[in-house]
Specification:
This protein is mainly α. It has 4 helices and 3 strands, in the order αβααββα. The N and C termini lie far apart (54 Å).
Length: 114
């Protein structure tokens, strides 16, 4: 699964019909430039983004790229896992509130308060 930072970076990259470049992503200031640079390189290595033919000097700064199908799948998986974690946390909170209400109800009924 991808990290939160990778998700933030991939979220800013357009799908295959459009393309972007690293300077355009840096302008958005979504994270520190060095981290973004590393994440884009990692995304290329993991095939999360597809890029134009590399220039003769392999300069990532001049490449245009877009989100690949694998990148989209990884983003959807990340969203599902985050949503699942939120639902689990919410269930625990509701259970805790139910326990507290039950204890208060037992206490009130045993004390004869009406």
């Amino acid at each position: 699964m991808i990290s939160k930072d990778m998700y933030r970076a991939l979220k800013e990259i357009p799908r295959s019909t459009e393309k972007t470049t690293l300077p355009k992503l840096v302008e958005k200031r979504i994270m520190k430039t060095e981290l973004l640079w590393d994440l884009i390189e990692e995304a290329i290595n993991c095939n999360y983004i597809s890029y134009s033919a590399r220039n003769p000097h392999n300069d990532i700064y001049k490449m245009s790229f877009s989100l690949s199908e694998l990148g989209q799948i990884e983003m959807e998986e990340y969203r599902r896992k985050v949503f699942s974690a939120v639902k689990s946390t919410l269930a625990v909170i509701i259970s805790g509130i139910s326990l507290i209400v039950s204890i208060v109800a037992i206490f009130v009924s045993s004390c004869g308060v009406q």
